[in-house]
Amino acid sequence: MVHLFVHALLLLVGSSLAIAQRPEIPDDIPLDKGTRDYLESLPPDELAAVLEVYQEAFAGQVPAPPELITQQELSLYGKSPAVYPSPLAKGTGTWADAYAHVKALVNQMTNEEKANTTSLSDSGVPAIPRLGFPGLRLHDGPNGLNALEEVTAYASGITVGASWNKDLAHARGQISNLLGPTIGPLGRTVAGGRNWESFSVDPYLCGQMGAKTVLGIQENVIATAKHFVLNEQETDRNPSMFGFSNASVSSNIDDKTMHEYYLWPFQDAVKAGVGSVMCSYQRVNGSHSCQNSWTQNGLLKTELGFQGILTSWFKFAQFDPANPLGLPKNISKAHEGSSSIDPSPEAKYIIRQGAVEGAVLVKNVNNTLPLKKPKILSLFGYDAHTPLVNSPTGANSKYSIGYQSVNRTKVQVQGLFVGVGEYPSAATLGTLVGGGGSSSVTPQYINSPFDAFQQRAYEDGTFLYWDFNSEDPSYSESDACLVFINEFASEIVDRVSLADQYSDNLVMNTIVSIHNAGVRLVDRWIDHPNVTAVIFAHLPGQDAGPALVDIMYGEQAPSGKLPYTVAKNESDYSEELLWPVRPDNSLNYYTHADFTEGSYIDYCRFDALNIEPRFEFGFGLTYTTFNYSDLEVCHTEANSSFYSPPGEVMEDGLKSLWDVVAIVTVRVLNTGEVTASEIPQLYVGIPGAPIKQLRGFEKIPLHPKEGKSVSFPLTRRDLSLWDTKSQSWYLERGEYKLYVGSSSRDIRLTGSLTF
């Protein structure tokens, strides 16, 4: 891995520096011996290139050597409570048939066959023909098969989350091969490098989409819910990353916040029957996640009743006892359900529809969109066309991504095995269809916006202008000017900015499309009178261009909603939640991320502090209007006692948590002239909790003048809080306020429940 890292740096940075003498490797960079020896073997010019990026990419992040750690500092760790022994799986419920089948199979195996089956390798699990066991082919890929050529690039997790379409999440799971779903990180760190892999910062939305994905995947192979748990930043997530001897960051959290926020989507995945859960790299309350008995034995296996496979990725940390947790051998690849990479007709539909439904229209002045056969159309921006290189040996292959230099400054260097310098004058080169890291894929094709708009121009007889190189392009007298920009993010590194000046300067007289990997601030230009329409297209997969044509020409009305809040200023998120925690001067060997904000993240924080967002959570425009009416709230006959009634712990937690205690019904009418989908959202105000929390949503297509009623069942779990003293869920006495609307702030109807 070290060699891959260094070679990647050389490839991206180059080795043409003129060096008078051999540079010295600084002593204050605590490299391990293998890395230091390898660097010493490099020619002077190559060594200089590597050291330049090493020092710039990790400036201010170099940790202190282990011998400088004091006993006082060590005492900060290991605070996670011990929960032993590891509970044995019962093999009951929906697992009964699987356990019985496996037991019968294992009883027929020889010792050699058992050893071969449990000793995983990159080639997979060998078949046992005499017993009819076909074996397993294994491969990595949280967003599709990575490190292979000509695979399918589907819409990313955040794009599917922006669709708010549970059926789409299920269908994507059915036809894609994922080491997933990713339901952690949720997105506590706004600039988090992997937020794009997950569905939403909201645990309810993330849990619903994750559960549907699990059900889809497991129609073919085992799904793996990850990363369990609190993997909320990339910075310092890994022990000994890149040869440094830094320890993993510790995500320090209280019991209440863990249960009410971060554990939520994993409980939904377990309820859906997920067969595997992957633990995360970082620490939880001082103990490594993959050796944390509280999170694994106490929460996952005991409270949630999980009976499947708990796995790490590549390795455990080199300290802390792992065996008492009952972890299997380390797994480095995902189950691959098929050897075919050719998309079926069903898959082709999901590829395109995922991109369409995950795009969010956030501005549309005077019905600028949809376009109506413009006579002249101008296209600008570096995201409009395909990358200049896409070959097995090119810069866009596998784990790396190409960049273009702007203003003749240094290019940004970013990818799975490389660091990132803070160079805001660098832009991702070509149409951005996905993020970086282990979730990146190399698609068999990329249908860019330029490709798709050329085809549409041909069909409509539209004259097309374009300029993808100028920093300040001149705008012709066109009927419409479209600008395509993007915002990249990757595993290993967190983002360094939520905007960039180069892209912002391009959009002053246009319709703007942004392929964004997460929150993208737009306040530098969003109110400019010449910016008439804006689409957050997220990371759409390989059919990026046709999806935008469908939306901009009205073939389909936009139906996406934001799965996060877009602020007016970075400071609105707070410094603690905006950027990852980095080592400080006193405890820079042990980094601590203290989750002191509790559940007040994203829209819950904005509501509590009365901060006006630019675009609120759940917001999205379309080409019609909707009316809400006939709100009804009905108590059921379920037990609504103060504390959850004791009972059996199923494979999804205490059985009584899933009792439906109330049903909320609302009617939605399409009052416009265009067929479109609306997403009515139910928010609940639990006494003593955030003002509003999402507890229901449905995506409903409606023809003009058509209306439908939607029901939201509310379970005891949906309305409960966690009591840390009794270690149980309870219903708060008093009034529960109910809010139904088109977004977290566009509330159309209100009601209440009383317990």
UniProtKB/TrEMBL annotation:
It is an enzyme of class 3 (hydrolase). Pathway: Glycan metabolism; cellulose degradation. Residues 678-744 form the Fibronectin type III-like domain. InterPro entries: Cellulose_deg_GH3 (IPR050288), Fn3-like (IPR026891), GH (IPR017853), Glyco_hydro_3_C (IPR002772), Glyco_hydro_3_C_sf (IPR036881), Glyco_hydro_3_N (IPR001764), Glyco_hydro_3_N_sf (IPR036962), Ig-like_fold (IPR013783). It catalyses: Hydrolysis of terminal, non-reducing beta-D-glucosyl residues with release of beta-D-glucose. Gene3D superfamilies: Glycoside hydrolase family 3 C-terminal domain, Glycoside hydrolase, family 3, N-terminal domain, Immunoglobulins. Keywords: Carbohydrate metabolism, Cellulose degradation, Glycoprotein, Glycosidase, Hydrolase, Polysaccharide degradation, Secreted, Signal. It is found in: Secreted. GO terms for molecular function: beta-glucosidase activity. Its EC number is 3.2.1.21. GO terms for biological process: cellulose catabolic process. Residues 1-20 form the signal peptide. Its main location: secreted. The keyword Hydrolase applies. One of its GO terms (cellular component) is extracellular region. Beta-glucosidases are one of a number of cellulolytic enzymes involved in the degradation of cellulosic biomass. Catalyzes the last step releasing glucose from the inhibitory cellobiose. Belongs to the glycosyl hydrolase 3 family. This is Probable beta-glucosidase M.
